[in-house]
Known about the structure:
The protein is of the alpha+beta class. It has 2 helices and 8 strands; from the N terminus they run ββββββαββα. The strands form 2 sheets. Strands 2-1-5-6-7-8 form a 6-stranded antiparallel beta sheet. A two-stranded antiparallel ribbon has the order 3-4. A hairpin with a 5-residue loop joins β3 and β4 (27-28).
Amino acid sequence: KLKFRMSGITYLKSKAGKAAKMGGGRSHLSLDTTGCAVFEGGDTLDFELCKPRYFGSSRTVASSQIPLTEVLHSARLGSAHASVWNLELLATDAPTKVLGSLVVDVRIRTSKLHAAGGLGALRLAALPQPPAGNASTATCGVEGSGVAAAALGPAQDARACEAFAKKAAKAQLRLQEVLGAVRRATQSQKP
Length: 191
């Protein structure tokens, strides 16, 4: 199967398939996989060819990367035309050995987060779950959050709210970093 990853997070994976023998002893595997991902940062788009296992995670046998700057320079924002790459999949145990090739089409568009699936579309900068609570207790000190503290007692409420506020601040910082990275990358491609 094939995995698409950014910053170590898997955004898309194909179903496992078997390669068909072609002429000249070559094999061909059609994955026919299409998907979308919200950019959450990273320097590369990573593709991994994996061998599924009966128990546990699949094992990566080959991989390839496209630098993000190359993607942003070649893909026209909002265009219906894709940037196409023919990537060599290099063996993980022998980085100079080409195990196969992969044709990748990439399109980039901007949209509001809610149009791309909302907060649920985020994987790397996912927002933490607020503590359960009731409306009569404090709001975890997060202005305008409307998040009530857990009804566990003052000490537990304070710890739960403190943990939530730290995780929310970390997610906010991560989203600001992503926005800054995209702005810098798109500004560097202007003539």
